[in-house]
């Protein structure tokens, strides 16, 4: 019996020892599996962080590309608007070019008509001056001669020729609204004298010779002398008004041999 009991003890002792180690092995296995899981989880978290970083980087690149694309779209829209405006300008310029071509063709026709017209205007101006009262004869004759010379020049445009002709007409027109005093030569009785002339519009032209101070006026046909009294006082005052030496005032000047008018 004793031996049997010892045998049983020997048999169960290893079994008990084995049984006592089973939980420890299981715990050890669980710890290993847990550490493996933790390690795997950490690795996955790291992979996720790397993946998220890559996603963020791709997102930033995508957003940057989208912003650049939108900016380029705005530039393209601006260029399209600019091109549209240029197309409109080109159409407008083509229309203007067509108008200019037509105008150039018309200019030749106008030039053929306007040059003879200006020649007739100069002839008319010359005739008018010859029939007018004889003030500033040299200046007015020279102006007409210059116009004829200008009309024959090829280096002067038709526009400039027209301007000069109309300017001459304007000058002659202004003579009728102004008063003027000037000194010039007077041909009288076969002799030439220095004289002070007074012109009041085209209403009166009076002279006073330098030196002997003879007086006279243009009666429409020729020079007619005036008596010293009372005309000397009137003419001297009128000459001062015309030279702006005194303030303007009412003038008394001879209009013809039988009539003295206050102007």
What can be said about this structure in brief?
The protein is of the alpha+beta class and 263 residues long. It is built from four helices and seven strands.
Largest sheet: 5 strands, antiparallel
Report helical residue fraction.
Answer: 55-70%
Which strands sit side by side, in order, in the main sheet? 1-2-3-4-5
Low-confidence stretches: 257-263
Series of secondary-structure elements, N-terminal to C-terminal:
HHHEEEEEHEE
Total number of β-strand segments? Answer: 7
Gap between N and C termini:
182 Å
Q: What Rg, in angstroms, do the CA atoms define? A: 60 Å
Average pLDDT level: 83
Can you walk me through this structure?
With 263 residues, the protein is an alpha+beta fold. The protein has a domain at 180-263. 68% of the residues lie in helices and 16% in strands. The strands form two sheets. Strands 1-2-3-4-5 form a five-stranded antiparallel β-sheet, covered by helices on one side. A two-stranded antiparallel sheet has the order 6-7. The N and C termini lie far apart (182 Å). The relative contact order is 0.05.
């Amino acid at each position: 019996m004793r031996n049997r009991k010892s045998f049983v003890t020997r048999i169960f002792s290893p079994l008990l020892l084995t049984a006592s180690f089973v939980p420890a092995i299981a715990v050890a296995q669980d710890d290993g599996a847990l550490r493996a899981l933790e390690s795997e989880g950490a690795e996955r978290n790291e992979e996720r962080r790397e993946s998220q970083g890559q996603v963020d980087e791709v997102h930033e690149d995508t957003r940057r590309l989208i912003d650049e694309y939108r900016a380029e779209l705005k530039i393209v829209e601006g260029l399209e608007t600019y091109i549209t405006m240029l197309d409109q300008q080109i159409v407008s310029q083509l229309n203007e070019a067509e108008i200019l071509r037509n105008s150039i063709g018309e200019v030749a026709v106008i030039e053929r008509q306007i040059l003879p017209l200006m020649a007739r205007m100069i002839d008319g101006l010359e005739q008018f001056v010859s029939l007018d009262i004889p003030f500033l004869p040299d200046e007015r004759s020279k102006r007409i001669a210059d116009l004829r010379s200008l009309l024959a020049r090829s280096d002067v445009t038709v526009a400039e020729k027209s301007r000069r002709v109309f300017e001459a007409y304007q000058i002659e027109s202004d003579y009728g609204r102004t008063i003027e005093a000037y000194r010039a030569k007077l041909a009288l009785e076969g002799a030439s004298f220095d004289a002070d002339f007074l012109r009041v519009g085209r209403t009166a032209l009076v002279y006073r010779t330098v030196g002997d101070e003879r007086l006279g006026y243009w009666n429409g046909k020729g020079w007619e002398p005036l008596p010293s009294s009372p005309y000397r006082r009137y003419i001297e005052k009128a000459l001062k008004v015309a030279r702006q030496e005194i303030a303007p005032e009412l003038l008394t000047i001879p209009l013809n041999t039988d009539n003295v008018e206050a102007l």
